[in-house]
Amino acid sequence: MSGMLAPEVLVLGASGRVGSGVVAALLEAGSPVLAVARDASRLERLAAMHADEPGLEVMVASVSDDGAAAELARRVSRRPRGLRGVVDATAGVRRTSRLLDQPAPVLTASFEQEVLPHLAAARHLLPLLKRRGGDRYLLAGGPHARCGWAGYGHASVAIAASRMLVQVLHEEAQPLGVRVQMLSIDAPVWTPDNTGRACAGWHGTLGIGRAMVSLLATSSPDARSIVSYADTAGERPPGMLGRDFAAVLDAASGTPGPGWAA
């Protein structure tokens, strides 16, 4: 029966601002989702928001270091579904301060929270993704990686390092047949929680999620390592992942659809 299951997309940081939008867009497109986050209560709220979606499963786990990422990879490897893709929507804690006002270890901490978890996740999930049939590994990039973010200098430097990390991983993953890309989100993200201080030009979470779905789609021609969210327009993808899911359901009911191979 496991061969009849549609492959899922693993979303890291699924209960966060960007991650929750990615989960919603994937479900909208008809894709099964494995939503991973560290906070069990926030994952429960995410599951409650999509209580009518049978394709959503949640898992409490972390990629904060190599050990945690390796354990996550082991747990995912035991799952019955294949793995279509990975979306890393994790982000470090971003506190406002001037670089010149803080000692050097504060910048070190920013790297440890913002950059190193991306590397730990990629080290253990990229090989697993290839073994389980997937070929897309996406990361969400924060704003102002190429110019300073006023008051958030530590975050700007760390986000810029994450951008370079993706460009290196993009090259190193090519022999695996996996495309690594970053969706560069060039402005803060609007949510119902920050409506009172949101400004014009902030991005909605569902639009970002739909842009991620577009990059995950098999038909996507974009091979750049860094893709600006502004280039994608956040338009609703036309059932890109749903076609695969529908084929599996047709086969399970004994009426194989186009493109289904037993």
TrEMBL record:
Source species, domain of life: Bacteria
SUPFAM superfamilies: NAD(P)-binding Rossmann-fold domains (SSF51735)
Alphabetized InterPro entries for the sequence: NAD(P)-bd_dom_sf, SDR_fam
Pfam families xref list: adh_short
One term of GO molecular function: oxidoreductase activity
Keyword Oxidoreductase: yes
This protein's UniProt keywords: Oxidoreductase
Family per similarity comment: Belongs to the short-chain dehydrogenases/reductases (SDR) family.
Listed name of the protein: Short-chain dehydrogenase/reductase SDR
Source organism: Pseudoxanthomonas suwonensis (strain 11-1)
